[in-house]
Amino acid sequence: MVNAQSSGNFISNKHRIYYYITAICLTVCFIISFPSPAVSDNQKKILVLHSYHQGLVWTDDIMEGIYSVFNKDDMDIEINVEYMDTKRYFDGFEGKYLTRLRDMYKDKYGTMNLDIIISSDDNAFQFLLMHHDELFPGTPVVFCGVNDFEDAMLAGHELVFTGVLELLDPKASIDLALKLHPKAREIAIITETTISGSVNRNVLEQLADQYKGTAEFIFLDKDKTGLTLQELLGSLRQLKETSVVFYSDFLRSKGVYINQEVAVPEISRTSRRPVYTQYDEILGLGVVGGKLVNGHSHGQKAAEMAKRILQGAPVNTLPVHKESVNTYMFDYEQLTRFNIDTDDLPEGSIFINRPFSFYMEYKALVWAVMVIFVFMILSLAAIFLNVVRRKKAERELKKAHDELEQKVENRTNALGIANIDLQSEIDERARAEEQIKKALKEKELLLQEIHHRVKNNLTVVHSLLGLQAKHIYDERDREMFRESINRIKSMAMIHEKLYDTKDLANIDFSAYLKHMLKDMFMSYNLTSDQITLNIDENDVTLRINSAIPCGLIINELVSNSLKHAFPDNMKGEIHVALNAYSKDEIELLVRDNGIGIPESLNIKAADTLGMNLVNALIKQLQGTIEINREKGSEFRITFRSR
């Protein structure tokens, strides 16, 4: 039996459980009642249908070209990708394999309202021509990578089909090969038995007639039944010294699919003669190169046309793109292997595996830097001439002052001679003092002019670097330019402050510091919502020979915090303070609450330009630095104002 108290507790617990379950259900219902913000009501649905398989370089390049136009992370776009895999599995357009694919796509996409279809290569194009009205009625199609094309194929589909043709140019590659190897008399052709391979072979067979008397076309697959890789390698070993090789297609070893990343290096190693091609997908696997078709360009062009259709352009206003997008491209390692001079190649050729040359890679940058340095040298020369003039003026002033003192002394000794003589001396002294005041004023104006010109020259350098940085696409190089710009800006602001003040020896450093850090945050495009900047606005005055190194140190330390302390858009705070504990003793504090500096990093032995500059400037100030790595990074620098 259960007593009354136990029964009451059981009922109370049961009600409590019911209460919790009810509260949870209401909360869930409340949450799911709101529409998901992740998916837009106007989301566009795109189907990408590839003839071949994922992992094939050509197909992957086309997909990357499509992604360069349609961001895969864009929530307003849903991209569905299908790989027909017909390089490895194909029994004809009426065969069982494509019939099963048709039925599968019908089940999968029958109820999905697709906005557009992008197809790559001939098999997907032919498949859509056969089954479009059944599977995707009314859905626009943009094809790319199609070789075997005639305008008549689009009869009845003009309002929904358009695209980009894959215009191969084997003649350009063969002409170049014969030019680079004038002793060549045979062109050994590598082909395969797939649909695209057969189409390409027919083109080459027709092209052979144009080379009669110049070179003979030798098709290594003589009877068009296909070769195994070993049979192909055996034929290559028997080639004459007067031969060059043209790789058209080889994705099947006697009907069995073979990966190009496996076959092409073997072909290159076995062949004693250079191998040319018409596809960029195998460049880097051992071929010399040629005028190559590019999968990324095809995918990008098709995606751009698809985007215009999604934006409302009628399909029939976008004609089939029939212009070649091929480019001369070469493997520098193979050029070296066969002693081919790059000067003999077409102008504008693209190279891979070329040894890095800073001058060749950044020729415009090198010349720009040289111009900047020449300008800086000329500016320094102008400053030097101004200094020479100033020193000459000081010597003349001192000479005039000494002469005046001598005259005053002589007149004083003759004071008792006559009142008239005394009055004359007083008048002359007054005139001399007026000249001194005028000379001192001229000296002050000269110093102000020097600071003004230095500031202007640094501003010009700052502007030139800023203009050049717009043409630099490497993020690391752009960051180096931005750091140099900030350093120059911090020095320019010192001279600007000296120009604007009557005290040409000392600077109100607190006002300069606030202005400099504000400009730095603007250069990094930061807002207070990302990084909070706190500045202790203490009244600190520094002489110019302390202000410039101190400004550069602050620039480097704050730049390091902005670049490294807050990764992945992490929010945080940077604190800068400058305190004068006595007339000469100054303490600089730069602190952030970011991820901190690794214990393994020795700041005083760091090999970065920024920290080397900081250490050098501290040494120049005859100061010391202390580092605290707890709760971020804290730099405490003390020095004596000189």
What this model shows, in words?
49% of the residues lie in helices and 16% in strands. The chain contains 17 helices and 21 strands. The strands form 6 sheets. A 5-stranded parallel β-sheet has the order 2-1-3-4-5, with helices on both faces. The chain has a 5-stranded mixed β-sheet with strand order 16-18-19-21-20, with helices on one face. A 4-stranded parallel β-sheet has the order 7-6-8-11, covered by helices on one side. The longest helix is centred in the middle third of the chain and has 51 residues, at 363-413.
- pLDDT < 50 runs, ≥5 residues: 1-12, 28-39
The N- to C-terminal Cα distance equals 96 Å
Q: How many strands, what sense, and barrel or not for the largest sheet? A: 5 strands, parallel
Strand order of the largest sheet: 2-1-3-4-5
**DSSP summary: helix tally:** 17
Instruction: Tell me the number of strands.
Output: 21
Strand content bin: 15-25%
Structural class: alpha/beta
Global shape:
elongated
- Whole-number radius of gyration? 39 Å
The overall pLDDT, averaged over residues, is 82
- What percentage of residues falls in helices of 4 or more residues? 40-55%
